[in-house]
Amino acid sequence: MTKDNITELIGRRLRELRAAADLSLDALAHKSGVSRSNISLIERGQSSPTAVVLDKLASALGVSVASMFEGGPAPVAPSPLARVADQPVWSDPASGYVRRNVSPPGVSPLQLVDVIFPAGQRVAFETSERDTDIHQLVWMIDGVMEIAHGADQWQLNPGDCLAVRLDAPIRFHNPGATPARYLVALTGARP
């Protein structure tokens, strides 16, 4: 999927989720803290949002960030297979981290996301209480990550797994000299 295609997918999905939540642009802007004009640009596929903006929008809509990359409502009989060529890949314009939604859309309440996080980079999400209870597991594959959830902080090394509920600010930092790779599993995250 090209950068233009993924930007269009995010815009289309944001419009669908906003409509399903019965929110106007102004209402979503107020609820998320993202400007109305920025939301409009994203929905029209004219702006690629950062991870922080996506998190604010997802939080306001009561879904996970991973839900923002799904192709819309699942067909009546969704496929249980997601071929790697069809899995949406997105790169955060601010930090350069790359995420690939691995899970087949609409098949399971579990979502899997493969992340490659550049050395020295940081991302801080202002995650707050959502209408939906979302749990996240982070399983380290390569490298090292420092993850803070609220007042708690951990350093994850290969093989380590951290479970948190998305109900407090969460910060990711790769203090290493090489990219880190980890798998994120989310439950309760689909609209």
Key terms for this structure?
191 residues, alpha+beta, 434 Repressor (Amino-terminal Domain), Jelly Rolls, six-stranded antiparallel beta sheet, four-stranded antiparallel beta sheet, 10 strands
Brief sketch in words of this structure:
This protein is α+β, with helices and mostly antiparallel strands and 191 residues long. The chain is 24% helix and 28% strand.
Task: Explain what you see.
There is one protein chain. The strands form two sheets. A six-stranded antiparallel sheet has the order 1-2-3-10-5-8. A four-stranded antiparallel sheet has the order 4-9-6-7. By secondary structure, it is of the alpha+beta class. The protein has two domains: 3-69, lambda repressor-like DNA-binding domains (434 Repressor (Amino-terminal Domain)), CATH 1.10.260; 84-187, Jelly Rolls (Sandwich). It is globular. The model has no long low-confidence stretch (mean pLDDT 91). It has helices at residues 3-20, 25-32, 36-43, 51-61, and strands at 89-91, 98-101, 110-117, 122-125, 135-142, 145-149, 152-156, 161-165, 170-173, 180-187. The protein is built from four helices and ten strands. Helices cover 24% and strands 28% of the residues.
